[in-house]
Amino acid sequence: STVSSVSLYRQARSMVYSDESYNLRIELDTKGCELSAREIEHIEEDLHTLRALVESFPVSNLYITVVHHARRGDYHVKTSLALCGKTLFTGDRDVVMHAAYERCIGG
Fold this sequence. Notes:
The chain has four helices and five strands, in the order αββααβββα. The chain has helices at 2-12, 37-45, 48-54, 97-105; strands spanning 14-19, 24-31, 60-69, 74-83, 86-94.
């Protein structure tokens, strides 16, 4: 049916955002949702401590994935920080996306 096709399409949509303006390269990927410009700004604002910690590394990449689970009504946020061949990762869930994100980055 048309309704279920539209619903699946909305869940499969993905938004990718990348920022390479600092030593910390950030890649943000969303699934099942789109973040507003203000939400992306909040994500960036919370990275000041992490930026300071990785500034001496020649390469530092932060991958953030935000998945909205419509049935459960929550967000699953996963972060991976790649530094000199090593990767640190964590994830958290919450009904509020930013709360899960803050726990992932220690904010």
